Amino acid sequence: MKSNLMKKTLGILVLGSLGLMATGAQADWNRDSHAQGGHATQQGNLFGQQVNARQQQQVERIQDGMRAGSLTRFEFNNLMHEQGEIRALEQRFRADGFIDAREFQRLDRALDVANQNIRAEKHDHQARYAYNPNPWFN
Questions:
Q1: Domain count, the chain
Q2: What is the DSSP letter of 92?
Q3: Is 9 within a domain?
Q4: What would the pLDDT profile of 86-104 be if each residue is shown by its tens digit?
């Protein structure tokens, strides 16, 4: 009788420990795949690259507008400030190491709004003139 009880207890202990080891191995496997560039990390890096490319393109458009005279100094400063706010938002989202889909959507929307603002300011027929008699407003 004691032998049967010992076998059952030993069997339960072995199965329990195997279950715990399997769970631990699976948890460790998930952590390692994330650290070595799992799908979520790769997707987050791709999101970050897309955001950076759009920001760079928008900054170039703003600088081109300033050089061409289609943006006033005030418009230029406002648009560059908006780009700085987007960059700060991106850095806040990157604090955990990558940008997830929801954060990317927020950044994408902010970049869309900034794009509309750039277009509106460049085409509002306010020009920056080199020999303006009233330089405070340009």
A1: 1
A2: H
A3: no
A4: 999 999 999 988 889 999 9
Cα–Cα distance between 61 and 119 in angstroms, integer?
9
62: containing domain: 42-129
> Is residue 4 situated within a structural domain?
no
Q: How far is CA 120 from CA 23, 70, 116, in A?
A: 57, 11, 6
Q: What is the pTM of this model?
A: 0.64
pLDDT in tens, 13-54: 766 776 666 665 555 454 444 455 566 678 778 888 999 999
End-to-end CA separation in angstroms for the chain: 99
Which 8-state DSSP code applies to residue 124? S
Reported as a pLDDT band with limits 50, 70 and 90, residue 134 is: low
The one-letter amino acid code at 70 reads S
Pairwise CA distance, residues 62 & 68, whole Å: 10
